[in-house]
Amino acid sequence: MLISVVIPVYNAEKYVKSAVESALQQKECGEVVLVEDQSPDNALEVCGALARRYDKVKLYRHEDGKNHGAGISRNLGIKKAQYDYIAFLDADDFYLPNRFAKAGKILSQNSSIDGVYEAVGSEFENEEARSRYFATHSNELATITTSVVPDKLFYYMISGKYGYMHLDGFVGKKEALLKVGMFPALRLHQDMVFFVKLAAICKLCPGEIEKPVSLRRLHLQNRITNPHTNFRETSFLAYEYLVKWMKHNKVDSAQTDLVKTRYYKMKYSLYKRKQKYLTAILYCLYYRLFFKKKEGMLFNPEVRG
């Protein structure tokens, strides 16, 4: 099987060559799709040089010449991809040798599987980046921490107790990615939303979840290490998107209710922090009347049969 590796590029002139060449070293790599997103540095020139040097490297930019963010850039890459399977790599990260060995075998042996997720490790550029990262994270390995059958994966993800997926460790069918509407136009958490959508209506299986197949470089320019990022508000926006998407796509009511449970609890807390107490009280009452009783399923995914 051959895979299209999609790499969104923004402000990554120092790293993108390493990312591209780590992908080209994989025997399953059919092409590398670079989407340059109006970088202020010399990333475009570096990408152009890579496209001229390697036949497998394709370079694209947004038609309007504007910056659109990583999610929308990945969407362009998905649309341009020539192969049936798609993997992702951030421009400042890199694949380890034999990146697709286990995932490729799983996908080749079972045509009903839409995607495989695997563990991604961390490489810290300096001690300050490490310190910032561990201020909000407890494990440098990005992975789902237990083996989960596909029909329960959604519930394990929403519980928040079993780790998380990283795009550098995912490979899936192009048709599945198009089916869920690809990535949302969010600046943060678009990867989380993407995986929740896939888990809700597609079949995802674990590959290598204990050892990394890729490494993400963590430096001071990462949003994940930025101490000023308001993760509560950005998480709320992500769940707001999911509520609307699930309604539009008529997703299973039990799954939708769990997302709404988190959403309305976040909404109440958000208005409370903004000192809009009357609105906060109304959402608190709404949450308690319709969703608080469902909290048990959030924290115990095995409740679902």
- The structural class is alpha/beta
Specify the biggest β-sheet. 7 strands, mixed
Give helix % range: 40-55%
Q: Over all CA atoms, what is the radius of gyration?
A: 20 Å
Helix-strand pattern: EHEHEHEEHEEHHEHHEEHHHH
Shape, per Cα inertia axes: globular
CATH topology name of the largest domain: Spore Coat Polysaccharide Biosynthesis Protein SpsA, Chain A
Q: Which CATH class of the largest domain?
A: Alpha Beta
- The CATH superfamily of the largest domain is Spore Coat Polysaccharide Biosynthesis Protein SpsA, Chain A
How much strand content do the residues show?
Answer: 15-25%
How would you characterize the overall build of this protein?
This protein has 2 domains: 223 residues, Spore Coat Polysaccharide Biosynthesis Protein SpsA, Chain A (Alpha-Beta Complex), CATH 3.90.550; 73 residues, no CATH class. The chain is built from 12 helices and 10 strands. A 7-stranded mixed beta sheet has the order 3-2-1-4-8-6-9, sandwiched between helices. A 3-stranded mixed beta sheet has the order 5-10-7. Helix 1 links the parallel strand 1 and strand 2.
Concise overview:
The chain has 305 residues and is of the alpha/beta class.
List key phrases describing it:
single chain; 305 residues; alpha/beta; Spore Coat Polysaccharide Biosynthesis Protein SpsA, Chain A; 2 domains; seven-stranded mixed β-sheet; three-stranded mixed β-sheet; 12 helices
